[in-house]
Structures are given as C-alpha cells and as structure tokens.
Design goal:
alpha+beta; 7-stranded antiparallel sheet; 6-stranded antiparallel sheet; 19 strands; 30% strand
C-alpha cells in the first residue's frame, strides 16, 4: 500500500493514534482503535457503536407543512411489496387530509422520467416507494430537472434492499409517514459519478461498489427467489472465486495506490449496504464526505472480513481493511470492469466521484439526545 500523506485522513483503525498534524482543509472525524483490542492481535474486534446518520444537530432540521404530495411507486419492487405499501400510504394520507396524485413506474428508468418532468407547483413533497434502485432513480430525476427546482423527497421502503432507509431507521411505512406529517426535513449529500470511457454522469445517494461487491450483486440478481439470503450466498461464492484486478485509486488528489492488486472497493454515503449490512459504520449523510474501505484479501481473510461485517461493522478494525473519508475519488482499473451504483449494475470504470454537500432534502426521524449523535 502506498504511503499516506499526512494531509489525507486515513481512518485505518490500527494505525490511528493522534492526528495532531492533519490538515484542516475539510471536516475530520477521528476514530479510535477497537475497544479492548489495543495491542492485542488475537482479541475479537468490538462492534462500532451505533451512531445517528447525521453529523449536524437538531438546528439543521427544517419544518414544512405538507398538504399535497406526489406518490411515485415502483409496483414491481420487493416482489410486489411496493404495491402493498402503496395501499397503506394512500389510506393514511386520506385520513390525514393530505391530497395526493399517484404515478406507477412501468419500466427501468421510468422513475427518473417521472420525477424530472413532474410539475412541482402546488405540491409540497414527492413520496417515493420502492427499494434503493427506485430511490436512485428518483434522485437522478430530481438532480436533472431542467429548471433546477426541487421538492423534499420522502422515501418509503418497498424493496428487498433498503439500505438508505435502514440508516434512518425507517423500514416501517407508518413511521416514515409520521415524519412526513411532522414536516421535519434535512439537507443531505449525494455523489456525482462520472463513469466509463464516454464520461457519462449519474448521481448516487447510497453506494458505489467495485470488485466483490459488484460481482456478488450480479450473482444475487440471478437468485432473487432466495430473498435477502441471496446476498450472503453470492458474496460467499465470489470470495471462494477470489478474483483480483489491478487498480489505481486517488482520493482528494492524493494517490493511494497505483496499479496494485485489489479485490474490493466499497464507497458509500450510507452506513448500510446489501441486506442491512453495516459496511461503512462511520458514514454520515450530511458531513460533506463519502466513506470508502478497500483491501486486497485472500480467501481466508475475506471470509473473516465478511464475518465481521455480519457482526455489525467490526471489519473496519481488521488490518486487511483500509478506511478513508474523501470529497473526491478516482478509480481506474487496468482493465475496464463493472460498477454497481445504488444496487444497480451496468455502469463501468473508470470512475470519478465528487461529493455534492447538502444536494437535496429528505424527511427524517427526530434527532436523538446529543450524547447519542457523537461518533465514539
């Protein structure tokens, strides 16, 4: 691994002591060694403490009155869960005297078109019902509106993969609708992803995966009949295959590695990915940064890493896991390969990602007491 500049904050758990000489050109969030793991190579790493997915306190909340909304639903998400949740939403909105107009997507990319072309005048919010892929399409429709106008998005989990809503603790539709009725909103970050030889642009609110993360997702798509268990099966299969590729990785202008063998790179705005896996446990939705971990791991190390992921995110304390935060990232494999963006396969390398701070507005849960919002 290339030597790290002191100007780049490297969040490798076993390397960090005190970063008194780190540049302060961006927010810095320091993370300790694993509790009970200091100086001991055999102790099992502790789980990172659960943290609220926002870096800012309640003063960042903004309240609006919601009287009229659009509903955009993917009826095919979650094996029909989207349609079932829709009925619950419409009944609840009616009982709360909130007017609504419902649109159902009919094909991939349709949610992008709907959100991009809706007339926002006279409406207060857009409810988006589906999984992470549906939310991804809604964000891209919002960011590509010709006039640049926006409405707050209210995401309602209706898919098999609901990583974004897992971060918010919003897996239950009734809870999320209460956030809407309360009118509580926050501005959150997204990423602008420039990908492929043609430098096409797409926006991400959740994650960008390369390596095992993409390969396993391709396999998981063929195992949808297994439900959420398909993610575990697919990851284990790809670990056993142990495919490596050479890449160059640059963060905030600093070269991290150049033409080095690598097995996985996981980039996220959220803490969770896949079927509720806490992959980047220190990520925040509003800190102006994305988080990334990567490593070149063999089969046994990969199995250990996956086991610690399943334990709740303690993989970040392993010596094989390298964890950074950044504002910009460039990833260039020697050979063009697939990317997964927000759970959707089909994009390709090379990729350049720029974080867009406070890019859009979502409805959120109440802010807990200040003591629970601090990263340990």
């Amino acid at each position: 691994m290339s030597e790290t500049s002191t100007e780049l904050v490297h969040l490798h758990m076993n390397d960090i002591k005190k970063a008194t000489n780190c540049a302060e050109s961006r927010p810095i969030r320091m993370l300790p060694e694993a509790p009970g793991h200091e100086g001991c190579c055999c102790a099992k790493p502790a789980r990172p403490v659960a943290v609220f997915p926002f870096s800012k306190d309640a003063s960042a909340e903004r309240y609006i009155t919601v009287k009229s909304v659009y509903i955009v639903v993917n009826p095919f998400s979650g094996n029909g869960k989207g349609n079932r949740v829709l009925k619950q939403i419409e009944a609840s909105l009616t009982s709360h005297s909130v007017a609504f107009t419902t649109f159902k997507s009919g094909h991939p990319g349709h949610v992008v078109e709907l959100v991009r072309e809706l007339n926002f005048a006279g409406h207060d919010a857009v409810l988006v019902v589906g999984g992470d892929g549906t939310f991804h399409e809604a964000l891209n429709g919002l960011m590509c509106r010709p006039g640049g106008d926006q409405l707050p998005l209210c995401f309602v989990a209706g898919g098999t993969g609901n990583s974004f809503m897992t971060d918010l603790g919003g897996e239950n539709a009734a809870d999320v609708l209460q956030w809407l009725y309360d009118g509580r909103t926050r501005r959150v970050d997204c990423g602008r992803v420039q990908w492929g030889a043609q430098e096409q642009v797409v926006y991400t609110l959740n994650m960008v995966s390369w390596g095992i993360g993409v390969d396993s997702n391709v396999v998981a798509e063929k195992l949808r009949w297994m439900g959420t268990a398909r993610y575990d099966v697919a990851i284990l299969w790809e670990i056993l295959k142990s495919q490596r590729r050479e890449i160059s990785l640059t963060l905030d202008g600093f070269p991290i590695c150049r033409d080095e063998s690598m097995k996985l790179v996981q980039i996220q705005n959220t803490q969770h990915g896949g079927a509720g896996l806490r992959l980047l446990p220190f990520a925040r939705l509003d800190d102006g940064l994305f988080d990334v971990f990567f490593g070149d791991v063999g089969r046994l190390s990969a199995l250990k890493l996956f086991g610690e992921v399943k334990r709740g995110g303690s993989h970040v304390y392993l010596s094989s896991c390298h964890y950074y935060q950044f504002k910009s990232l460039s990833l260039e494999p020697k050979v063009e390969s697939l990317l997964n963006v927000d759970g959707e396969n089909g994009r390709a390398t090379p990729v350049h990602l720029e974080v867009m701070p406070e890019a859009f507005t979502i409805f959120t849960p109440p802010t807990p007491p200040a003591s629970t919002t601090i990263v340990p």
